[in-house]
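Justification of computing resources. Each target in the renewal requires a structure prediction run like the one illustrated here; the chain below, 158 residues long, is used simply to show the kind of job we budget for.
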Amino acid sequence: MESKGTVYLTRERMLELEKELQQMKSKGRAEMADKIAEARSHGDLSENAEYDAAKEEQGLFELRISKLEELLSRARIIDKSDLPKGAVYILSDVTLEDLKNGGTVTYKLVSQEEADFEQNKIAVTSPIGKALLKKKIGDLVTVKVPAGTLEYKILDVS
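Resulting structure tokens:
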């Protein structure tokens, strides 16, 4: 697999991924082998759709294991206390005022692997994340997104 460079994760996320990988390698592989054995017991493999489906599922399962291993091999733990204060960096909580509608929103900037828009965790590699990096309280930020242009004022960085 092609390496994509260093991935920065919080300690908590790194532990979650390591736990998921360990569970997949131990319990998950055993369950997958049981599914294949069950499907194999249903007769002629050349006409056994259940067996084909189980083998395909196994392939996807092994691909997920491989991707997790590759991701973890590139991962570095990042600690918020190691980052400069007063400006927006990865792991910063940034409160923004939308200059078009006056509303406010708070985002946490995280790595792409940890991004979850529903939890207001946005990737530093996203258009908004890139625009916010190294900005300070009071700065105005203009972001071009597919839906148009967003304009924000940074109210707080923590």
